[in-house]
Amino acid sequence: MTQCPVSGLSVTEKEHWSFENRQGNYTRKYSLIGNDIIHVQELASQGIIPDHLYSADFTSLIGEENLTGKPVFIMIDCEPIIDLKFSYKREFTNLVTAQESDLRLIVLYNIKPSVRLQLEMLQSLATEKLPVMLRESYKEAVTSILDFKSGNVSSTKPDDGSDKAFRNAFLAEVSRILMLRQFSQLEIFPPENHASYPYFEILDIMRRDLQALEEEHQQSIERIEQECRVLLASKNSLLDEQIEVCKRSEQRFKAEESALLSRIAALEIEATRISTANAEKNAALRTLCEMIEKINIDPATMEKISAQCATLFETSDQAAMINTELTETDSVFLSKLQKKHPNLNQRELRISLMIKLDYHSRDIARSLGLSTRGIESIRYRLHKKIGLDKHNSLKTYLTNLATESL
């Protein structure tokens, strides 16, 4: 730990209090003189134009050293600074005009002529709560802080009406307009015979013009915001209308879908009924023909009757599901299945028959123009519709049903 050569106070330095600027052209270094003076140094081998004050670092250091709520003083070495970015000046302005702060004094020293006027402008924004001093050297900076802490500070305010007073007033007005965007009437105006009067007059003209531009800008913003609100309301209205149209269309489509599904279901039931009736009629017709063959009648007549029966059987309905004729056994099976499970539709009845006939799912799918996965899904639904538990085979159930008597 070193000591301040001016005050003899200890100087605290920490490794993480030093960091390279993101542009890489200088290093920012912090140290603590005594327990309440933050010393800021910009270390560079050439002139720099800083773009940020990094005032958040002050708050961080104050918190780290448990100085929150205590008076803190800052001195900044401006040795390598040759100019200032606007962002730096804006951050400095925010710092000195903050309503709440632990800072009590800011001292800038080693100021180059190229940047002095800008720093004087920033100094003009300082308040009694947080004054800003410009000093020539490190020694003067430390001495000024010690004097300020002890209360030994004489007023440096120039006499009213003096050239320096008007100069300071001019800088303050320029800073107020530029940095704070305040366009109220100038508080100080020199007499007309004063050498600085034309400059104040031009400044006042600029102030009024900038105020007018600011008002126009605000009006433009308000107009744009209003136009956006109107446009947004219009778009929202159109969107609501479109949503309502979509809802009505969806309801209409659902109604149409429901009607079509109902019609399909009715047609499937009717087709099943007709198919079952045909199967029953075919079975009865075959029984009748067999009975007729046992009757003792004229052979010629019997031959005619037998021929007619054969014709009737040849023209019986074709089975659409496997492109083969339904056998009598198949017809009887379908009749049994439809009566026992009337909730099965025509397609499910057809697939049930093909399962009983030991067709593979792949062959059933190819015959009906469906996917194998689709057939497996239908088999699963059939299993549930018929009421079988997962351990019972659908094929075994259908085979057993076929052997039962009607």
TrEMBL record:
One of its GO terms (biological process) is regulation of DNA-templated transcription. InterPro entries: Sig_transdc_resp-reg_C-effctor (IPR016032), WH-like_DNA-bd_sf (IPR036388). Keywords: Coiled coil. Residues 203-241 form a coiled coil. Gene3D superfamilies: Winged helix-like DNA-binding domain superfamily/Winged helix DNA-binding domain (1.10.10.10). GO terms for molecular function: DNA binding. This is Transcriptional regulator.
